[in-house]
Amino acid sequence: MSDKTRKSLPILDQGGGAIPMDRRQALKVMAIAAAGPTLASCAPGEAPVDATIPAPTSNPKAAGTAWDPDLVAPSVSWERTLSADELASLADLCDVILPGDERSAAASAVGAHDFIDEWVSAPYEGNARDLVTVRGGLLWLDREASERFGGGASLRFRDCTLEQKHGICDDICYEPNAPAGYEAGARFFDRVRYLTSTAFWTTTEGMQDLEYIGNMPLTRWDPPPPEVLRHIGVEG
User: Fold this and answer.
1) What is the structure's pLDDT at 200?
2) CA distances from 139 to 59, 97, 132, 214, 221 (A)
3) Sign of CA dihedral 34, 65, 68, 58
4) Which residues, in sequence order, are bridge partners of residue 12?
5) Residue bearing the bigger pLDDT, 59 or 130
6) For residue 49, what pLDDT band results from cuts at 50, 70 and 90?
7) Max Cα separation, the chain?
8) pLDDT digit string (tens) for 93-135?
9) Which sign does the torsion angle of CA 223, 226, 229, 234 carry?
10) H helices of the chain, where?
């Protein structure tokens, strides 16, 4: 996953300013937060514990492996699996799914394909199934491109025109409507679309695209007006 992809969740410093926090830092903060009530609590009459005690930099009881991860200082302990050629094709498909526009960058620009590579390379059963799905799907896209638009010659999906790419993807974008024989391609597209969306909208750029403000400090918060509460049936 690229450094740009890892920029995601801002937290607040003591002055109320935003501090960038990546996915791994988020895990660290959650682990510390889970221990917070214990650190800050005290029996009646006892002096409160200083909440500014430096947080641990790692968990010495964790092996730091894929099966016993260190959630305080998480890291990826497995090698990436996809080849450079597969990544190039995957990046192209990610950009068909989430293209760049005046509002935000394309999915590959924030490392969506690198995120998927990390995901499918993980040594877990579900991720291994996704690796088979992604690799097989990328080969299927090239074969479909050649059969439809190659004129008897080999043609890569990523070398097709955007209209041709959309023509293929339109047939596999929703499995219940996929033509007979395209069901596996539809399952592949659905999985890549999910992973691309997950990667994109957990980056700073993706959150800005959604206009998500949940990680931003608000100087004032106004509750919903009475007419809204009445509309949803929770007034009072």
Assistant:
1) 96
2) 42, 18, 11, 40, 51
3) negative
4) 18
5) 130
6) very low
7) 85
8) 999 999 999 999 999 999 999 999 999 999 999 999 999 999 9
9) positive
10) 3-6, 23-40, 84-97, 112-121, 125-149, 162-172, 183-200, 204-210, 226-232
d(CA 168, CA 85): 20
DSSP states of 76-103: --S---S-HHHHHHHHHHHHHHS---SS
- Residue range 141-172, pLDDT digits in tens: 999 999 999 999 999 999 999 999 999 999 99
Q: Which position has the token pair 């996953």? A: 1
Q: What is the pLDDT of residue 22?
A: 52
Q: Is this model's pTM higher than 0.70 or not? A: no
Closest to 135 (Cα-Cα) out of 109, 149, 117: 117
Q: How far apart, in whole angstroms, are the C-alpha atoms of residue 222 and residue 171?
A: 46
Helices 183-200 and 162-172: crossing angle in degrees, nearest 10, is 110
Give the residue extent of every domain in the chain.
84-202
Cβ-based burial of 198 (10 A; exposed 0-12, middle 13-18, buried ≥19):
middle
> Amino acid identity of 163?
E
Phi-psi region of 18 (alpha: psi -120 to 50; beta: other; left: phi over 0): beta
